[in-house]
Amino acid sequence: MADMAEMWHWQPSDMWPMEAGELSEWRNRAIKRYNEKQEAKAKAGKR
Q1: What domain count does the chain have?
Q2: What phi-psi label fits residue 25: left (phi over 0), alpha (psi between -120 and 50 degrees) or beta?
C-alpha cells in the first residue's frame, strides 16, 4: 500500500474499500510507472 500511496498520492482511506486483486493491480501499475521514470532518467543521463 505504501508504494501506491507514494505514487498516486492516495490516503489509506482511499485504499481500504479495494479488494486484494484491485490493490495488486494498482501496485503493479505503480511499479511499472516507477520503472519507466527511472529508465527515462537513466537515458537522459547518458546523453
Answers
A1: 1
A2: alpha
Q: Which domain holds residue 34?
A: 1-45
- This prediction has a pTM of 0.74
User: Which amino acid is residue 15, in one-letter code?
Assistant: M
Residue 9 DSSP SS3: coil
Contact by Cβ (8 Å): 4, 30: yes
pLDDT in tens, 13-27: 999 999 999 999 999
Rg (CA), the chain: 13
Where do the DSSP E strands lie in 1-47? Answer: none
